[in-house]
Structures are given as C-alpha cells and as structure tokens.
Amino acid sequence: MTDPESFAHHDADLNKQALAYHAEPRPGKIGIEVTKSASTQHELSLAYTPGVAEPVRHIHDDPENAYRYTNKGNLVAVITDGSAVLGLGKVGAQASKPVMEGKSVLFKRFADIDCFDIEVEARHPQAFIETVVRIAPTFGGINLEDIAAPHCFEIEQALIEQLDIPVFHDDQHGTAIIIAAGLLNALELQGKSLAEARIVVLGAGAAGIAAIRLLLALGAHRDNIFAIDRQGVIHVGRQDLNPYKFGIAADTERRTLADAMDGADAFIGVSGPDLVTADMLASMAPRPVVFALSNPVPEVRPALAREVRDDLIMATGRSDYPNQINNVLGFPFIFRGALDVRASRINENMQIAAVEALRAITREPVPAEVLAAYEGLESLEFGPDYIIPKPFDPRLRERVSAAVARAAIESGVARAPYPAHYPG
Ligand SMILES: NC(=O)C1=CN([C@@H]2O[C@H](COP(=O)(O)OP(=O)(O)OC[C@H]3O[C@@H](n4cnc5c(N)ncnc54)[C@H](OP(=O)(O)O)[C@@H]3O)[C@@H](O)[C@H]2O)C=CC1
Ligand SMILES: CC(=O)C(=O)O
Ligand SMILES: [Mg+2]
User: Fold this and answer.
1) Facing residues of 141 across strands?
2) In terms of DSSP H, where are the helices of 24-136?
3) Which among 51, 147, 221, 351 has most CB atoms closer than 10 A?
4) Mean pLDDT score of the chain, rounded to an integer?
5) Which tens digit of pLDDT belongs to each residue from 111-152?
6) φ and ψ at residue 85, rounded to 5 degrees
7) Binding pocket residue ranges, ligand 2, CB within 6 Å
8) Which residue among 100, 144, 170 is best mutated to probe the pocket of ligand 2, counting the most ligand atoms within 8 A of its Cβ?
9) How many CB atoms lie within 10 A of CB 320?
C-alpha cells in the first residue's frame, strides 16, 4: 500500500470480511465449553446435585478452596463501560462487545485463560466500581478495558484497593509495557538512549499517561517528554489540567503538536486517526521513532511516513503492518504469570519484568511457526522492521509469563510458588 487511497480500499475490503467473520457461521467469536464429562446419571450427580454441595461446603469453610474446586483461578473478566473503545471513542457498552469478545479470544488463544466479557452500563465511576466489586468473587483476575481517562485512573485504583485479585487496566499498563519494550529496542537500533531521547506523546489519556509514567520509571528524562491533548502541549501554565495531566506537565514554551515534534527523537501516538502531518514528520530529529498506535486508524499512515522519511522506525497498533505495538503482546501472558502464582496484584516490578522479557525475545531467532502465520514473511531478524515479537510467538507464553511470575514472587505479592512446569 503506497497511498492513502489504496489504504482506504484495503480497509473497506477488510471491513466487509470482518462483518462476515463476526456473523457466520454463528454470531460472535467465543463460546463456553464444559470441561468435565457430564454424560451419565452418576456424573450428573457429581457435577450437580447432590455432589456439588460438597465443594460448596469446602469453599464456605475456606474461600481459598474456590481455586481448587472451581474455574476461578483461570477465569478473567474483561470489563468495560464502553467509554474509550479503541480509537472510536465513547460508543457505549453494547457496541464495545466485539472488542471485549476479541480480548477474550486473545486471552484464550494465546494463554489458555478463560474469560467472560462484561459490558457495563455505568455513567459514574462509583457505579462501575460497585458493579465490579460485586461480581469479583467469580474471577481470578479483572482486566479493565477501554475505559476513558480520567475515570479509568480512579476506577483502577479503587478496585486494586478493594480486591485481592489482580486488577489491570490493559489500555494503561498493557499498552505502556509494549510501548516501552518497542521504544527501548527502536532507540537502540537508531543509536539513541531513553535517557536522552526527546519524546512526544500525543494523547494524554489512559495509554498516554501510563506510558509516560512507565518510561520515566525506566529512565526517560522528565524534561524530555511533551504530552499533548486536544488543547495542545500539556504545560505547567495550563489552568485546565486534571491532576493526572498535571503530573506529567512540562515546563516549556512549546504549545502545539507541531512545536513539540520539532527535533523530537520519538513520537508515540495514542490519540486518534490522521493527526500527524508530513511537515511534522520532516521536522523530527534524524533517525526518529514513530509509533502511531491509534486503532484502527493510526495517527499517520505508514506509507506517508515512509514517503517523508527513509530513516525512521515505524510501528502501528495493527496486525497488517510490520512492528505491531499492541497490548495483545502483554495482557494474556502477564495474567498467565500472575494467575499461576496467585498474585494479589500486578505491580510495577512485574510490568518491568514483562518489558525486559519482550525485549530479550526480539533479539533471538524467530520460530518457523511465527513466520508461517504471516503471509509472505520469510525471515525476521531484530532490526527496523522487527522491534517487538509477533503475537503468535509461542515464546511469549513461556518467557513473559515466567518473568512476571518471578517478579511477583520476588516483590512479595505471590500466594503460590513458582510453578513446576515453568522454565527453571
Ligand atoms: N496499540 C495499542 O495497543 C493501543 C492503542 N490505543 C489507542 O490509543 C488511543 C487512546 O486510547 P485511550 O488512552 O484508552 O483513550 P482515552 O480516552 O483515555 O484518551 C484519549 C486521549 O487522546 C487525546 N486525543 C483524542 N483525540 C485527539 C486529538 N484530535 N488531538 C489531540 N489529542 C487527542 C485525548 O485528549 P483530551 O484529553 O483533550 O480529550 C485524550 O488525552 C486510541 O486510539 C486507542 O486505540 C490504546 C490502547 C492500546
Ligand atoms: C489495542 C487496544 O486495547 C485499544 O486500541 O484500545
Ligand atoms: Mg483497549
């Protein structure tokens, strides 16, 4: 695809196929399976009454037994209020369901974690929080999805405090982890360091603010980061900032996206479609990194970016371009590790462990089954078109989950030992 027109044709064609995929042969993308035989009178008396009463008694005596006798330990809720669905915005609870089913498919396909997608009608954070707290006993973990800032911060914090199972806002931390891994790798290839890189983050919502926080924890310099929202650069002189934005405000005279892009080493777009112009790209520093991560339409089309610069490393959030920076590389494997050591939360140590594991995998030879999943892909090697592993890489489940599990144990939030079947 070399021009915007062919990009649009490609998307129109894909959209048609996507509708058919979702509709046929049966609506939706995920179902429920029975995991024990229930084919005889005897099995029915075990699965249901009278036998089922015995595990009930055991769980009543000790709630920990829920992990032994029910699917709780391998069941995650993908929960949203439909307020920031991909880059489509506030489409509401019902319309968000295909995305939440999609996340559930990814949990199952990549990490064998069972999921219920739950779309909640809740206008106020408190109503949402109460809903999640009430249904939490069912689950081993809570994956919050597509909840807009600033409510997402309040919601996640309250749930972490009130629940003893991992609560993880995927658009914040899942995205931040993949951005951090991809950016560290891309900067290294471009001969730059995170500490010195000047970074523009377009979008100061869930993904943008979490990405900045994690990059700062990993060594980025506060003075080198400019965050931008619909009003322009987030600077300390602005009177309209909520506390979350104020926490990342820059002391700068720059005011617009174009101002911020001038001389920048890296651009991270977590905002909306087509917001970056050719002039802005041209004004960036030599050998820039451009992550246009808005879904489904990126902040700048890869073809346009390449036309303007031949020295950039480019990534999008989509599956149909090289370098997919997308939280699919994180949440299935992070929850796998967290559930397997019964972690009470997913803390920053566990997040940084995931970043390091992703970075390391990218530098190693890619298994043939990964290449087979991508049409026309004959080889992959750490370089400008391969800065982050592919979602189909079987090593993600082994290595990212193990790194997260280890970090949970070392940071004291695990309630079960390192699993015997994990790598030593
Ligand atoms: N690739 C990936 O893995 C992921 C990608 N994303 C993408 O990131 C985007 C944001 O998601 P999320 O953070 O959850 O959403 P939020 O609603 O929490 O935040 C959106 C942010 O983008 C800003 N924004 C939106 N439109 C513009 C614009 N035209 N100009 C400047 N700023 C703009 C908003 O500004 P304001 O505060 O002024 O309203 C806000 O700060 C989506 O497109 C989503 O698809 C998100 C998660 C993962
Ligand atoms: C990928 C994702 O979670 C998003 O775009 O919201
Ligand atoms: Mg999302």
Assistant:
1) 76
2) 41-47, 53-61, 66-69, 97-111, 125-135
3) 147
4) 96
5) 999 999 999 999 999 999 999 999 999 999 999 999 999 999
6) -85, 115
7) 86, 146, 170-171, 295, 317, 326-327
8) 170
9) 13
Do residues 198 and 227 lie in contact, with contact meaning Cβ atoms separated by under 8 Å? Answer: no
Query: What is the model's pLDDT at position 5?
Result: 55
Q: What value, to the nearest 5°, has the Cα angle with vertex 82 and ends 80 and 86?
A: 100
Mean pLDDT value across residues 20-24? 98
Residue with CA at minimum distance from ligand 1 atom 23: 203
- Please report the pLDDT score of residue 266 as a whole number: 98
323: left (phi over 0), alpha (psi -120 to 50) or beta: left
Closest residue CA from atom 2 of ligand 2:
86
Q: Residue 269: nearest ligand to its CA?
A: 1
How many percent of the chain have pLDDT more than 70?
Answer: 98
How many residues belong to the chain? 424
328, 111 contact by CB (below 8 A): no
CA atoms within 13 A on the CB side of 209: 21
* DSSP string of 275-329, one letter each residue: ---HHHHHTSPSS-EEEE--SSS-SS-HHHHHHH-SS-EEEESSTTSSSB--GGG
The shares of helix, strand and coil residues in the chain, as percent rounded to the nearest 5, are 45, 10, 40
Q: What is the mean pLDDT of residues 293-319?
A: 96
This model of the complex carries an ipTM of 0.99
**pLDDT digits 0-9 by tens, 324-356:** 999 999 999 999 999 999 999 999 999 999 999
Residues 6+ apart with CB under 8 A from 129: 155, 158, 159, 162
Six token digits for residue 288: 């820039």
Could you give the CA distance from residue 257 to residue 270 in angstroms, rounded to a whole number? 13
Tokens of 351: 């997040």
Q: Among the bound ligands, name the one nearest to the CA of residue 201.
A: 1
> Within a 10 A sphere around the Cβ of 263, how many other Cβ atoms?
13
* Of 357, 362, 349, 364, nearest in space to 333 by CA: 357
Q: Which residue has the tokens 């009430």?
A: 134
Q: Binding site annotation covers 295?
A: yes
271 lines ligand 1 (CB under 6 A): yes
What is residue 140's DSSP assignment?
S
pLDDT at 11: 79
Nearest to 169 by CA among 78, 99, 245: 78
Structure tokens at 61: 């005596």
Place of tokens 């951005």: 179
- Asked if residue 296 has a cis previous peptide bond (ω within 30° of 0), the answer is yes
- Strands across the sheet containing 75-80: 114-119, 75-80, 141-144, 167-169
